[in-house]
Amino acid sequence: MAAPTSSAQKSEEEWRAILSPEQFRILRQKGTELRGTGEYDKFYNDGVYNCAGCGTPLYKSTTKFNSGCGWPAFYEGFPGAISRFPDPDGRRTEITCTACGGHLGHVFKGEGFSTPTDERHCVNSVAIKFAPAETSSASL
Ligand SMILES: [Zn+2]
């Protein structure tokens, strides 16, 4: 596949114009929504979660699990959709949307969850947008 196009990259002013203040705070300023308040914290419908900034598919609902941590948790993203960076705090690993660079949350490893990867992508609900499953050709 081709590398993500630069069309998803925008200036801070452009992002401010298209995102809500809360989306801007989290996606562009690496904020964190309050624990247990997210729209998708306890949401398990069948579908796909897209980046709230650029619309790129990030996670399938089948990889979402109940971590009890107070934020949506996934054990795996779409291949290449999620980028990882060492967090400035020196301990955690930040995850971002590869296409637009939007901050999603953090990924934690080896916590003992019984998932295929033993990883927990701890994602802000505000940073993602749910799209219900439908019978389309985009099956994976
Ligand atoms: Zn994005």
UniProtKB/TrEMBL annotation:
Cofactor binding mode and count: Binds 1 zinc ion per subunit.
Molecular function GO terms recorded: metal ion binding; peptide-methionine (R)-S-oxide reductase activity
Domain MsrB: 12-133
Keywords, sorted A to Z: Electron transport, Metal-binding, Oxidoreductase, Redox-active center, Transport, Zinc
InterPro entries in UniProt: Met_Sox_Rdtase_MsrB, Met_Sox_Rdtase_MsrB_dom, Mss4-like_sf
UniProt keyword Coiled coil, yes or no: no
Source organism, top-level taxon: Eukaryota
Reactions that this protein is recorded to catalyse: L-methionyl-[protein] + [thioredoxin]-disulfide + H2O = L-methionyl-(R)-S-oxide-[protein] + [thioredoxin]-dithiol
Presence of keyword Transport: yes
Pfam families hit by this protein: SelR (PF01641)
Gene Ontology biological process terms, A to Z: protein repair; response to oxidative stress
Cofactor list: Zn(2+)
Residue stretches spanning the membrane: none
EC numbers on record: 1.8.4.12
Family the entry assigns: Belongs to the MsrB Met sulfoxide reductase family.
Xref: NCBIfam families: peptide-methionine (R)-S-oxide reductase MsrB (TIGR00357)
Function: Catalyzes the reduction of methionine sulfoxide (MetSO) to methionine in proteins. Plays a protective role against oxidative stress by restoring activity to proteins that have been inactivated by methionine oxidation. MSRB family specifically reduces the MetSO R-enantiomer.
Descriptive protein name: Peptide-methionine (R)-S-oxide reductase
Organism annotation: Actinidia deliciosa
